[in-house]
Structure formats: C-alpha cells, structure tokens
Amino acid sequence: MDERQLRILRELGELGSVTAVAEALLVTPSAISQQLRLLQRAIPVPLTERQGRRLVLTDAGQALAGAAVEVETALARARHQGDAPAGRRLPLVHRINEFAVVAEVVAAGGGIALMPRLTMRPHPELVLRPLSGVQARRHIDALYRPERTARAAVRTVLTELRRIARSIQHREGDDRATS
C-alpha cells in the first residue's frame, strides 16, 4: 500500500468512477484499475464492488479512503517540517484579500473547499483573519489544479467566485453610469 494508491481510492470515492479518477489524475483508466488491484492485494477485505458498470467503495473502502486523507495530511505536515529550518516552525499563511468574497463563498456553503486540509478538523494553531489596510483592486484570482475541478466542492467555489465577480462588475458599472 502506498500514498498514490490511497489517493486513487480516495478520488474514486469522491469522483465516483474509474474514468473520472483517470481524467483527474491525467492517467489512463487501466493505470487506475491496476493501482486499485495492487492496493486490494494488500488489504484482506474487499475495498470496491461493482454496481452495474460502476465501481464503488465498500464500507471498508470508504473507511480506508477516509484514512487516506489523514495520511496525506500527515505526509504533507512531515514534508513541511522537513523543509523547516532547524528548531523553527515555518508559518502556514493563506491570504484571501477580499473578505467580502470569502464571506459570500463560505455563506454559500462552498468555502470549506478553499482550504480543505485546514478546515476538515480543528487546528488550534491556525488563526484566520481578514487582511486590513490592503487596497483591493477588485480582481479575483483563483488558482486551482486542473484535476481538482472534477470535485463538486471546487466547482462550487469557482462558480461562486465567478458569480461574485459578475455582481461586482455589475455594481461598478452602475456606479460609473450614475457618476
């Protein structure tokens, strides 16, 4: 069992098909199937089952996919710590310049996808605060990895950001027309 196989299992649970996982990870469906077979050999209980033409996770598969998130988080934390200078913790900073945008996205229910590793469970050392004294130019930049757009939560956030950007443009257009 390795990190890649766990990620594939997690993605299968989230995306719902081998084809979708292959597209998201930019590999072939047969490569996904092969990795799932190798993972299954390491686990004594079935992780997937066929439902018609679809391959779905069993209860054991769902439990392992959930653990995969914890493994990914732990490995990312270990890599982060390995990069830290001796005896000093590197700060983890996420800056979202337009607090109103964040507030609207969170209120719409998609905000959890902005920082999933940090919002899945409590992190007492993490403090989120809006930036003050920063001049917003009303530009919204959204950076995302192409394979993540297959996830519903990411699509929700991107859709909300586009909607908010259109409403800002519309308001600014009205302001210019009345001045």
TrEMBL record:
Keywords: DNA-binding, Transcription, Transcription regulation. InterPro entries: LysR_HTH_N (IPR000847), LysR_subst-bd (IPR005119), WH-like_DNA-bd_sf (IPR036388), WH_DNA-bd_sf (IPR036390). The keyword Ribosomal protein does not apply. Residues 1-58 form the HTH lysR-type domain. It comes from the Bacteria. SUPFAM superfamilies: Periplasmic binding protein-like II (SSF53850), Winged helix' DNA-binding domain (SSF46785). Coiled coil: none annotated. Pfam families: HTH_1 (PF00126), LysR_substrate (PF03466). GO terms for molecular function: DNA-binding transcription factor activity; transcription cis-regulatory region binding. Belongs to the LysR transcriptional regulatory family. This is HTH lysR-type domain-containing protein.
